[in-house]
Automatic annotation (TrEMBL):
It holds the Pfam family Epimerase. This is TIGR01777 family protein. It comes from Parahaliea aestuarii. Belongs to the NAD(P)-dependent epimerase/dehydratase family. SDR39U1 subfamily. Residues 3-213 form the NAD-dependent epimerase/dehydratase domain.
Amino acid sequence: MDVLVSGGTGFVGSALVPALCEAGHRVTVLTRQKPGRHENSEGVHYVQSLAPLREAPVDAVINLAGASMAGARWTQRYKRELLASRLETTAGLVEFFRERQAPPATLLSASAVGYYGHQGDQLLAEDAPPRPGFASDLCRQWEQTAARAEDLGVRTCYLRLGVVLDAGGGALDDMARPFRFGIANWMGSGQQWLSWVHRADVVAAILFLLDQPCLSGPFNLTAPTPVTNRELCTALRKQFTTLPPVPLPGLALRLGLGEMAGELLLSGQRVVPVALREAGFEFRFSDLDTALEAIYSKQ
C-alpha cells in the first residue's frame, strides 16, 4: 500500500513510519523540515508539499500534523498556531483528495481526548458528547475538517489520542523530570484523570485501523486503564528513588502557565477505548506499571 504520512517526523510519526515500512508499505512523509535531514532514510520518500504527489499513487493518508499543545503558554498568538497547524494541513489534504481523479481510500486523522473537555470522573467512550473549552473546540474543528473527506467517499477514522508515553521524548520526559532528581509530586488535587497510552500501542492501533476497511468514525487511542495524577505519581515513584511526594499547587501552575494549566494539567478526561476493543484490537500495555517498566528497562 502507498501511504502518505503528514507529521511523520514527530513523536508518534517517528515510530510509525518504520513500522509501516516493516509491514511492507511504501511511505511518503509530508514534513516542513528540510529534506536533507532525512535524505539517508531508506525506503521513505520525504516531501515538503503535496505538489509532487498530484499524480503519484496514494492509497491511504495518516494525518498526524499539529503543533504541540504543551509547546508554549496559550497566548492568542499560540492558539492561532495550534489551530492553523491542524486545520490548514487537514484542509490541504482534503483539497488534495478532491483534485485527484481517484482519492485515497482511507484517511486516518489525528485528534485528541481533549475533544471531550473536562467531565470529572465520568467514563468517556466515543459517543460521549464534548464539553466547551479551547482544546475541545480545537479537536471538534479538526475532526469536522477531516470529515469533509467522507463526502468524497474516503473512509475516515478520527484518532482521539491520549497522552502518548515512551522513552526518547513526548510528555513522559517532562512528567518524569522532577522524579529523576528525587522530587515526587502530583499537580493540584491529584484527582484529575490522565488518559495515557504507550506509543507502541498507538502504532499498532494505527496499523490495525489501516488494514480494517470496514472501520470508520472516532476511536479513542488510550489504554483501557486511565489513572489519576496521584496514581501517576505512585507509578513513577516505583521507577525512581524519591523523597515523599509534595503536591504542586494548582494556583502556582495557573499563574505560571495560564489557561493551558487549567485545561491540560489540572483537569483531564477518563477515556476508555471502547470502539477499538469492540473491533478486536488487543493492547500490549493495558496498565501503567507495566508500560513504565517496559519504557525504563530500555534506558
